[in-house]
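hey so i finally got around to running both of the ones u sent me last week. sorry it took forever, my laptop kept dying halfway thru and i had to restart like 3 times lol. anyway pasting them below in the order u listed, first the sequence line then the structure token line for each. didnt double check formatting much so if smth looks off just lmk and ill redo it

first one:
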Amino acid sequence: MGAVGRFPTRREVYVSRLQAEHLYKVFGRRSDEAVRRLEGGATRDELRADGATAAVIDASFTVDPGQIFVVMGLSGSGKSTLLRMLNGLLEPTAGRVLFDGRDLTALNRRELRSVRSRRISMVFPHFALFPHRSVSENAAYGLEVQGVDRAERAERAREALALAGLAGWEDSWPDELSGGMQQRVGLARALATDADLLLMDESFSALDPLIRRDMQDQLLELQKTLKKTIVFITHDLNEAMRLGDRIAVMRDGRIVQQGTAEDILVTPANDYVASFTQDVDRTRVLTAGAIMADPETAYGTRTDGGAELRSAGEVLAAAPAVVTADTPIAELFTPCSRSGVAVAVTCERGELIGVVPRARLLAVLGEPMKPERAPEPDGADGPGGPDGADGPDGSDGPDGPDGVADRAGTAASGAVAHA
């Protein structure tokens, strides 16, 4: 990799696989000056009046190895622009991106292309398959860019297609596949390169609801085995809650809250996040571990037969159900309705780590904790306003003057963004 340095070996351990540090992306005139103005408190409206559009403002986060990190927000929030800075498709106006401890923003074009072809793959929302190539050839395209010989790339493409549920379709053509199957080819193409980081930009948004659910299931099932590091972009809150180990909520170019799905549901950072999450089925997202009380709270309670519970063993024996911490609370209602004794929550070793009393279960279904009043993000447009509206390829915000996201080349560049 020349003077810039090397990537760490796979045996070396870092706290995070991916780290974004104070990223800004400003399109238009005098972008560096615009960043300084934003840091000084200028609003997006003030910048826009001077011919500059702030698509991403001071975004920072980390993604651990094997984690699915979901960035969610409405159209125009800046999420797709943010994603494209993570692999260098868009150059940040300010800030940096660290991948396994190495600053990607310091790489030259040749080095960056090498990283994208071997270590970072991208899955786009609209399949971006080559119509004149077979399913197998589409899945192998990233390997072809890497210079892998024909026999090996055919075998690796076959394995990736099997993982994606497309065994037996290798010789078919893209127009012979359903939308969901075409998206699986795009996923297989990313998997075939064995990249350490997958960037998925609204990858399931073009699919029908049932097929979209199937693709979410497929991704979660694959993740159990492959344990890839994934940054997933979506505007669908339920999808974010279902897939994300951690979630960042964006509005008007800024990340307004980060945390687990439970954090965001139970303790929203501001009124915007609270209103965003108000229609979510909390029983399918919150888990027993998120709402459980200390085991001691069950001591002194009595069973339906009148016996007093005095120890962890007695609580376990009397509990109407024994569940693990990751059990959705939707599964707790039936046992709680049958007994006044709390449901027991255990660790992998079967030891009591918490209890869910009936009253606690019912209380958590009420209003989320009232957020402290926080300043609203600047910009009068609000979520989904005309500023930075989605482009034809589903990305947020306008393309920069460098023409990175050339619309005429969407299919070709989308087919292997890492090339």
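and the second one:
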Amino acid sequence: MKADLKKETATYTAPRGRFAIVTVPALQFLMIDGHGDPNTSPVYEDAVTTIFPVAYTVKFLSKGDLGRDYSVMPLEALWWSDDMASFTSARDKSHWNWTLMNLVPDWITPAHLATACGTVARKGGAPLLEDVRLERLDEGLSVQTLHVGPYDDEGPVLDAMHNEFIPARSLRMTGKHHEIYLSDFRRTPASRLKTILRQPVEGADA
């Protein structure tokens, strides 16, 4: 039976139009780091071009060699900047740092990733293959919401999350801003894009 990681992980759903406080379990991802405006940075494009061939090759290796099939998950990214206003009011994307991610099951090991990368290398077309790593992320307590619409319309939502909802509940931001792209931007009109916006937090007195 094919595992559906999205259905098995409750935090891959979020309410639209309001913020929810959730506890995100520790999860394992393929990751690639970079910096700069995702709309213009060739490194960002190279990262997207690389991560999905690796993700699908890992999936088919798992199915063929381990007898354990699963659905490839959507693209995700961590975002951070020295000035968090670059995500809300300023929206200066040239200052953004990012980590592109793709969730994989816990049974995938570094050895499986190495085998998959070898297969992808022989086929070519994955320019950042040497930068792909396997890493666990434990975000824990977090605030999240579902944003529907263009990515550039996220600013007011994040401003409300960061500067109103979180401090009003005696919380403070701890980890990196996290986005889960539930829609394929290549096939979905901007007005219908669905994105989970997440911010790890902790108690203000922690």
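quick thing i noticed on the 2nd:
Residues 5-203 form a domain with the Multidrug-efflux Transporter 1 Regulator Bmrr; Chain A fold (CATH 3.20.80.10).
anyway thats it, ttyl
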